[in-house]
Design goal:
Two copies of one chain form a homodimer. Chain A is α/β, with parallel strands linked by helices and about 375 residues long. Chain A has 13 helices and eleven strands. In chain A, helix 4 crosses helix 13.
Chain lengths: ~375, ~375
């Protein structure tokens, strides 16, 4: 496949942006990416979004944004894969540039969530689950994840506080990220005392929603002079059953296993070559499961990486180096693009206090639904194996 | 770009399918396409859909369907571009196969619209327009098209009954299509007496909504033995402003002009090489505007092609040969895939009474919003110029 580089990136703070409309929010990230790339025109626009029909009464976000940001007449389309929409849009853009039909693409992940009441957003988020076989039973999205976490704790003998390092690390890293939603230190005590959401998931296990947008511009690698040149070493996607109840093993993210396996093969790498990993910690249990399925820990032992102090920026396997979903925030359809932007920031060495020393290869993994749709991308500095 | 063929097609009748769920409806078209292609597995699934989050409370339709139809673990994603979602999904699938990253794709356009009350569906359809600058003014989607039609009649001196041939032709052709929603002959008298929806658009100017799904399987052309071999000669997409009020000329479909021009160039063809044209006659005015922008009529003269009796299956430029949106029906996110399926049926010579003699090159044009997102595809029998 044609080699592709990420030339420009842009992002807004994840926040309650009541002063900005959907178009202003996405436009801001898009303009920043174009400025960073030094381009005022691209061949096509790919927008990742999940909730705008329900929250903003707006569909057709591709053209909605190509119009607003002045990419008049250019091809534009929206991609949706629940909370995996951002990286699904990134992957669609990669395929289009790789096909040779277009020479450049802007990808924008955008979500405006705080214009509606919390209960409406909870209902909208539930559309990621199976409406007929899960939602009809009255279970919420966090409820599904809570059942998985409960079973995992029972099966592998972990206590709730064993998950604290995921939350502590994410919040500590977010302190140094001006685009993060939460700037608040977490301790084991705070973690254990936090309000319960759906047992055993409490507020500090769960990522906060928010308004946000993140964007990137991709072009064929041979056209890029900028150094360091960040290339897409691998892109892979896989799916699982949409309902967790249909899986042989609800505690194994098979789509993470398959997409990461395929990504390693495409990049010619193994897990030990990955310098840092921006994973999808929508709930702390998902951090553990992603680490296991992606080859960084044995089954049931993902939690150990946190307890052994390996996941912070100076550890063996830094994760969520900009705060992750937990503390940077989880504007659902935008999250996958935040991960891509953050991987690029690390590879450019722009992360200050949470910079991973000598970062040359970074991985991002974005999940739609309860492990139903998973995209894994590996980015690297050109010249790295 | 890699040459791609359409190997299999499938479709359901457009109807009020109250006995079928969303998954059963889309699954039916998918299974038929797989059966027609003789394949029980593909590398990836692309789903075109507009309304399921609002009408069915279901997002993540890619994985929802890969799960249901047994494409376990395969990559799957949903594409949305309002009423242009079907062909936008088709184009995304083409890019992916063209990139070489995958070797086969199933594309399903699906829409379940009749499970909700009419007013709810009207509100859901309005999300194709600009929520901030059009819908806030209280205008409905048909209202926007009515203003364009009124202006066109005024500007070019046409009477309402001059549009009758579009409706009469579509309904006459649908009589021979078992998958069409309406099987009802239309005359000029009936056309003029039909109930008003939004002046000057009456019921027989407007396409009926409905539940429906249409699907196709694409693979690299060199792998296909089946004859006639239907190849994708061109795929192009363009956008316009999302709101009609922002356009210099609201009566010119600039995105149809641009995408058809690009498609002709890609295929090495001119409008005179097109044997038939499946256009997007959501309203009769749109049939006229599509013909003009795509190079088949001068400005303001699209209506003349109908009056001159050129658009029926034995005419110079057959359009809507299976009933078009007007009579086959317009299950919005599925429509683009119905058009692709119908072009393939014509090129295979499977259209009986409405077969276009010697059909070797067919064009499909699918529109999202009021001319905002437009995809043009040209399919041909391999060996044709």
């Amino acid at each position: 496949m044609r080699k592709i580089a990420v030339l420009g990136i842009g992002q807004t703070k994840v926040d309650e942006h009541w002063d900005k409309s959907l178009r202003e929010l996405g436009g801001e990230a898009a303009f920043l990416a174009m400025q960073d790339a030094g381009m005022d025109k691209v061949d096509a626009l790919y927008v990742g979004n999940m909730l705008s029909p329900m929250v903003s009464g707006q569909n057709q976000l591709g053209t909605f944004f190509s119009d607003w940001i002045g990419l008049w007449h250019q091809e534009a389309v929206k991609i949706e894969a629940a909370c995996g929409s951002g990286s699904a849009a990134f992957r669609s853009a990669l395929m289009a540039v790789a096909s040779g039909d277009i020479e450049s693409a802007l990808v924008v992940g955008v979500e405006k969530m705080t214009d509606k009441a919390g209960k409406d957003v909870t209902a909208a988020l539930a559309t990621a689950a199976d409406a007929d076989y899960e939602l009809e039973q009255g279970v919420s999205f966090v409820g599904i994840n809570a059942m998985v976490m409960r079973r995992y704790m029972h099966e592998f003998g972990w206590k709730h506080e064993d998950f604290a390092p995921f939350s502590i690390n994410a919040h500590a890293n977010a302190m140094h990220n001006p685009h993060a939603r939460l700037h608040e230190k977490v301790t084991v005590e705070k973690f254990e005392k936090s309000s319960m959401v759906a047992t055993p998931i409490n507020l500090l296990d769960a990522s906060p929603v928010g308004d946000g947008a993140a964007a990137a511009i991709i072009v064929p690698a041979e056209k890029v002079l900028r150094q360091p040149k960040v290339i897409v070493a691998a892109s892979a996607a896989a799916t699982d059953t949409i309902g967790v109840h249909s899986r042989k093993d609800p505690m194994f993210l098979n789509a993470a296993y398959l997409s990461s396996k395929q990504a390693y093969a495409m990049a010619g790498l193994t897990p030990s070559d990955i310098d840092f990993f921006e994973l999808h910690d929508a709930f702390s249990i998902m951090a553990a499961l992603s680490l296991e399925a992606s080859g960084f820990a044995e089954r049931g032992q993902g939690v150990r990486l946190g307890l052994d102090n390996k996941i912070h920026p100076k550890g063996n396997l830094p994760i969520c180096t900009r705060g992750g979903l937990k503390a940077r925030g989880h504007p659902v359809g935008a999250t996958g693009m935040y991960q891509i932007v953050e991987v690029v920031q690390q590879l450019r060495g722009e992360c200050g206090a949470t910079q991973v020393d000598g970062a040359r290869v970074g991985m991002a993994q974005n999940i739609g639904g309860s492990g139903a749709t998973i995209m894994t991308h590996i980015l690297s500095v050109e010249g790295t194996k």
